[in-house]
Design a protein that fits this description.
The complex is a heterotrimer of chains A (495), B (139) and C (119). Chain A is mainly alpha-helical. Chain A has 19 helices and two strands. Helices cover 78% and strands 2% of the residues of chain A. The chains are: A mainly alpha (495), B mainly alpha (139), C mainly alpha (119). Chains in contact: A-B, A-C, B-C.
């Protein structure tokens, strides 16, 4: 049975989401959601241990052997990300029940769970598929589910945010398809491994560059790389807190994986370095994200928007690692994908607790949180601090590898930029922390008198502890990322 | 009754034929042009025609929206159930060879099964979308 | 002459590029949300043609196996585009649904007016 896991771990959330669509009972649906997420976690961990022992697994869909049929290909890198995504979704859906009951209308909750699982299925599909067009289909499945999750938010501006994301996301996906179409016309194949083996023999470089550009820009829209990030802050700010946590910790990360795969496994070093300008553009955009988005974040008055802009900045760190493109830089990227996912899940779930009590996301409501909700305030503080990259937290680990990579390349300007943008992060995080601990609470700030549901508090605390634990013990994050980078990204080429 | 007798009578004659044609396209689909998607759209078109002519209230009474809402997941369940059946028989996901003793028969059965799934989902989705927009307008 | 023959021989690409740019232009330049969706649909449709037109082989028949024909057009892009059309329908109908809801909540679908209302 275990040889079918690549297909099964995509099918479980799809079937779960279908069952939820049929059954319209909120508690039962939550239970179905939790069970599907738990079984996906079980599948993905089994699969990872299998891949770690025996190397990459190829699964032929429908018995059609690749490169003709659709191939699902699991290697150390995407198996690691699948474990991360499924764990994050499992933790967040455990938290979701009371938060959703409080934030969105009762008849929409089933829809939310259904879309949550569909989105999860799409994301796992993008990670595991080895077929360019199949990746597009899964990209659209997860995006469509995401638009609906955002539009369910209580605030009516959520609709406009979802619409904007729909326009931008569809343009991004269509650009990606154009790129794939060009590759298909040149190489005659859609299987990524097959394309990678044929692409170096192509003599006509111009369509190849065009497809590289289309694919990069298309995916950059999905990952909200700096000048293309316009959809992200509104989408994060107005969707339900659970949705925000889920999106922030999974959706953009998966798109980054897709970019990583295309740059290093499909096009390969020869092509992306045949024109030095390409990597310079990526590095420049990453630096612009780190500075620009951090500066915008300083002036935000909505707490969710503040951390949404911080997400844009952190995505800049990840793509910077892609641009540095040596051993340590790639490890930095991979680890930061995992670490940032933990941090943002912790932060947005803590904000979800605050929203549960105050019903608002204005930053003023955080004033004096240290007195009204000390436990949640501590969690928010610790996870925000790890965003800056203080030693002993997860943020430090990934930045350490990025700095190492930049030093190896001899790019001192990048090292200095990393330090300065961390200072900028210190400013916006400092503003939050100052409000939490050193201001008097406003009167009548707590709308809902009853205590926070236990599971919401416990899960927030667990995630906060995780941001510290993985900052000290790097066996599960950085060491696994090292294995993945060595075996997958740097397998063929020597830098 | 309004003076659209001609339209109503001709629609009443046409709609059953459209539905039968949908089934023709459906079952012709596994060895010729056609298939579940086209058939589903044709079938949905007949219901949409009915709605346009007899009004959304009467149409939603005769073809309740909840039926179409539940048709969407049921169709996908038929599709994925076919795939999972292959897995339980020890073949790869969606490998139709698993569905019969003879691989060729298996391929036939598999195509028909998933096309029925597609057919059901497409009818459900198309009519649901149409109903959703129609019932908005009448408010 | 070379340019002219190039223009004529690959006219399908010029049509595709024209459609693509005009679709994208409508999305960017129009403030009306409905028109934006129309532009988006046009943009997506141009991609369908981008896929299908290289699949056609001159003098090739439909890809149905028979003894008296040897050249077939590639059926593969059609399969892909059938999927892409379904995705396009889903996106478009979700977009329209969002526009209707926005119209109900805000009373307008002009982006300028929406942004005046503070976003």
């Amino acid at each position: 049975m275990t040889e079918h896991l690549p297909a099964i771990q995509v099918m479980i959330p799809i079937v779960g989401s279908l069952l939820i669509m049929l059954i319209r009972n909120n508690t039962l649906n939550w239970l179905i959601g939790v069970l599907s997420c738990l079984s996906v976690v079980f599948c993905s961990i089994t699969l990872y241990s299998k891949v770690a022992i025996s190397g990459a697994i190829s699964y032929a869909m429908g018995g059609w052997e690749p490169p003709v049929g659709i191939e699902y290909r699991i290697d150390e890198l995407n198996a690691l990300f699948i474990v991360m995504i499924s764990l994050a979704s499992c933790i967040i859906i455990l938290y979701a029940k009371n938060s959703l009951n409080n934030e969105i209308r009762a008849n929409k909750i089933s829809v939310f769970y259904s879309m949550y699982l569909l989105c999860l299925a799409g994301l796992i599909g993008i990670l595991s598929t080895g077929d360019a067009f199949n990746a597009f289909v899964f990209l659209e499945i997860s995006s469509l589910a995401t638009y609906i999750m955002i539009s369910i938010g209580q605030d009516k501006r959520a609709l406009v945010a979802a619409y904007q994301y729909l326009i931008m996301g569809t343009i991004g996906a269509t650009l990606y398809v154009i790129g794939v179409g060009l590759i298909f016309v040149i190489t005659g194949s859609l299987n990524l491994v097959d394309i990678a083996s044929r692409i170096n023999d192509i003599e006509l470089m111009r369509p190849l560059y065009a497809s590289l550009a289309f694919i990069t820009v298309g995916i950059a829209l999905k990952i909200a790389l700096f000048p293309l990030h316009a959809w992200l802050p509104n989408a994060y700010a107005y969707s339900p807190s659970v949705g925000t946590a889920f999106l922030a910790s999974t959706a953009t990360k998966v798109a980054i994986y897709l970019l990583l795969k295309y740059l290093y496994l499909v096009f390969g070093y020869n092509i992306i370095y045949s024109n030095p300008l390409f990597m310079i553009v990526i590095i420049a955009l990453s630096l612009a994200a780190m500075f620009g988005a951090s500066i915008i974040a300083i002036f935000q008055s909505n707490i969710k928007k503040l951390f949404a802009y911080s997400s844009v900045a952190q995505i800049g760190y990840i793509t910077l690692g892609l641009g540095i493109a040596n051993y340590n830089g790639l490890i930095g990227s991979t680890v930061h994908i995992i670490n940032h996912s933990i941090i943002k899940a912790a932060i947005f779930l803590a904000i979800g607790c605050v929203v549960y009590k105050t019903k608002e996301t204005s930053i003023k409501k955080l004033a004096g949180l240290g007195r009204t909700m000390p436990l949640i305030a501590t969690c928010l503080t610790i996870s925000s601090i790890s965003l800056i990259g203080v030693p002993g937290t997860v943020g430090f680990i990934s930045k350490w590898y990025l700095v190492l990579g930049a030093i190896e390349q001899g790019w001192w300007l990048v090292v200095i930029s990393l330090a300065i943008s961390s200072l900028l992060a210190l400013i916006y995080v400092g503003r939050v922390i100052e409000l939490i601990w050193f201001h008097e609470p406003e009167k009548n700030i707590i709308v809902i008198k009853e205590k926070l549901p236990k599971e919401m508090v416990i899960i927030t605390i667990i995630l906060t502890l995780a941001t510290i634990y993985f900052g000290i013990d790097i066996r599960l994050t950085a060491d696994l990322a090292k294995v993945a980078v060595e075996n997958v990204l740097l397998a063929g080429d020597i830098l | 009754m309004r003076l659209d007798l001609l339209i109503r009578i001709s629609a009443k004659i046409f709609i059953p034929f459209i539905m039968v044609f949908a089934f023709y396209v459906q079952f012709h689909g596994d060895y010729g042009p056609g298939g579940g998607f086209q058939a589903g759209v044709i079938f949905a078109a007949s219901i949409i025609l009915y709605t346009i002519i007899f009004g959304s209230k009467k149409a939603q009474k005769d073809f309740p929206a909840i039926v179409f809402h539940s048709m969407i997941p049921i169709g996908v369940i038929i599709f994925s159930g076919t795939g999972l059946l292959s897995v339980f028989n020890g073949y790869n996901f969606l490998d139709y060879d698993a569905l019969s003793h003879y691989p060729k028969h298996g391929q036939h059965i598999g195509i028909i099964a998933i096309e029925i799934g597609v057919f059901v989902t497409v009818i459900g989705a198309m009519v649901s979308i149409f109903y959703a927009f129609v019932s908005r307008g009448s408010k | 002459m070379n340019i002219v023959s190039n223009l004529i021989s690959s006219y399908n690409y010029y049509i595709i590029i024209f459609l693509m740019i005009s679709g994208l232009f409508i999305v960017v330049a129009r403030g009306n949300m409905m028109k934006k969706l129309v532009g988006l649909a046009l943009f997506q449709t141009s991609v369908y043609i981008l896929y299908i037109s290289p699949g056609k082989i001159l003098n090739g028949t439909a890809p149905i196996l028979r003894d008296d024909f040897t050249i077939y057009s590639s059926p593969f892009p059609h399969v892909l585009i059938l999927t892409a059309i379904v995705v396009g329908i889903a996106t478009l109908s979700l977009g329209l649904a969002l526009v209707i809801r926005i119209n109900e909540e805000f009373g307008t679908i002009e982006e300028d007016k929406l942004f005046e209302e503070e976003l």
